[in-house]
Amino acid sequence: MDLATIIGLVLGVGVVAFGMFSGGDASNYIDVSSMIVTIGGGIFANMMGFPLSDSIKALKALPLIFKEPKSSAMSTISTLVALSQKARREGLLALESAQSEIEDDFLKKAMELVVDGIEAEIVKTTMQLDIDSMAARHQSAQAYFKGLAAQFPAWGLIGTLLGLINMLRSLDDPASIGPAMALALLTTFYGCILANLVCNPIIRKLEGNSAEEIRLREMMMEGVLSIQSGENPRLMEHKLKTFLSPDQRAAYEAATRKPEQP
Predict the structure, then answer these.
(1) Tens digit of pLDDT for each residue in 14-31?
(2) pTM over 0.70
(3) HEC letters along 59-128
(4) Which of 13, 75, 207, 242 has the fewest Cβ atoms within 10 Å of its own Cβ atom?
């Protein structure tokens, strides 16, 4: 589980709840009409701009913001170095027996191409197309939530206008002014909360996860091509470490450093 997402969500909701309770009765902030206008209007208007399949894919992407990536860059480098050493000792065909130990499907498919003797240029093109296709899918989900982030405040404003119109038309009835004003203000409140506490953080998380996965797959591609070309495992490892941040590189070197002999 991604603790940053959970902690941020819980504390964000807590801050909003604190503001609601410190101002009096929290039930004053609950209005069904305002929710229907803001949430329903935002979702349905956004659906008009995307195929129905994109709406379903966006919903499926939501759980990903709470999950840690399956593969880490450091463990991937260790795997690639081990495969490179095996290929140097026993040849590329020996990697066929090691494919069952590879957990990442992208890397496993690439190694299958290498073992099958496919030319390096074709292997690189195939892997790059796979990366580009994945990036396009990720961008589709991000675009959907960007649309929601724009729609919710807009429909909050629409709700505000509806409430003001109802209020102005009912000035001779004091009892109806309160509900109309509530609709006017709460729709804007809901729109801002949904955009800034829900949609925008989801967008940032999806963008970050996508960038990290693309970087990881590009590192895998570089490693696979190095293995296929028979590059020295130590040189390949040094090259792959350039994909790591300084902290990750220090952690990797500490984890792979051989203990000193007594």
Answers:
(1) 988 888 888 667 777 888
(2) yes
(3) HHHHHHHHCCCCCCHHHHHHHHHHHHHHHHHHCHHHHHHHHHHCCCHHHHHHHHHHHCCCCHHHHHHHHH
(4) 242
